[in-house]
Amino acid sequence: MAFSFDFKGDDISPDDEGLMDIQEAQVKAESTKARLELFPPQLHTLEQMLATLPSSVSYSFSNGHTENHLSPALATPRRELFDIRAQLMAEADVSDSGDPLVEGLSADIKPRIYEGGFKTWECSIDLARYLEENLEHGSLQFHQQNVHVIELGAGTAVPTSTILSYILRKRFSESAKSQARLNTTITVADYNSQVLQLATVPNLLLAGIHSEYNNSLAQEGTSSSGELDTALLAVQSFTERLASQGVIVRPISGAWGHEFVQLARGQIEPSKSADENNLTLVLASETIYSPDSLPEFVRTLVGLLSADRADALHGSVALALVAAKKVYFGVGGGVDDFVDAATKAGASVQMVWDSDSENAKKRSGGVGRCILEVTVNSTAEAMSVN
Predict the structure, then answer these.
(1) How far apart are CA 365 and CA 363, in angstroms?
(2) Are 217 and 226 in contact (CB under 8 A)?
(3) CA 133 vs CA 73, 74, 166, 351: distances in Å
(4) FRET label pair with 80: which of 89, 108, 206, 326, CA 20 to 30 Å apart?
(5) What is the mean pLDDT of each run of 10 residues along the chain (386 residues)?
(6) Can you give the pTM of this predicted structure?
């Protein structure tokens, strides 16, 4: 069964084909009823992904609904959907007119084949804005901790790009003054490896270049567009800067579950000093729309947040921020079902941003959206990964 979403409404910009709203959807079933095997989780390298880039990448800054604009300081560039399409079609087997990823550029979701990662979903912009506000005000204290950021269903990675831009511009200039060595691991996960290759990693590269050259990619705030020459020197400069500032980027493709949790958590060595503070921050946007995938998502989320006893003794903190529509009409999922499942799995959930709140009404419309903060206690791990 494939989901095809028919988008309408004033909150969608006709000029921004990459920004989609999952809410006003009509679900259409394809004739096939085959149960496909899930792609197993696989760890890739940043270098492998960057090596596949074409000689130039077309980009634009998020535009569309005014209330979702990021500030000029933290706005991040995003690879154009037409540019992704051109590379994907060039690499696809021309004799295979039914290539599922090529078809995915016109359909939105094909369960177990393509999960919509080439498009930017509305709640990811909400989450990026929330991160921007909290990072700038210091409430997440990224500049004082070792950090592991994990974005589930990363796709175009707008939230993670916002964090990477912030880290490269601010955190390490402050840590250099104090001569402190702080490390950041960024795990970007998407079901499709091609999404990581064609959208996620290029967007992180764009964010890194943008921050390195003092927002030089921006010509007119968030409405600019252009092309980035991805010559070897530009890519090498990006990877060297990450290495020099203690940033590791790890892309993971494939399905959620126990194996995925082990792969993601295994990327960080346990803290060896009781003086070190570590933060694990899991990000997810529009990942709870399907009742079928909700149980595995909750188990994965709780598994990622469950710190072992040694980490807890070192003062580590783990939390997740889940951005979602309150109800997904025509699809079946929603916030209430997620909160119920997460609570039963041993998690605590609280709403930290609500589009229906008095302060948010000025910049939000349509069906209610929210951001949920999720934490777990030390006893939840066994429930989450078994």
Answers:
(1) 7
(2) yes
(3) 11, 10, 11, 16
(4) 326
(5) 37 41 40 62 95 91 49 71 87 56 65 82 92 78 81 96 87 55 90 94 92 56 68 84 91 96 74 62 95 95 76 73 93 93 96 80 72 82 47
(6) 0.83
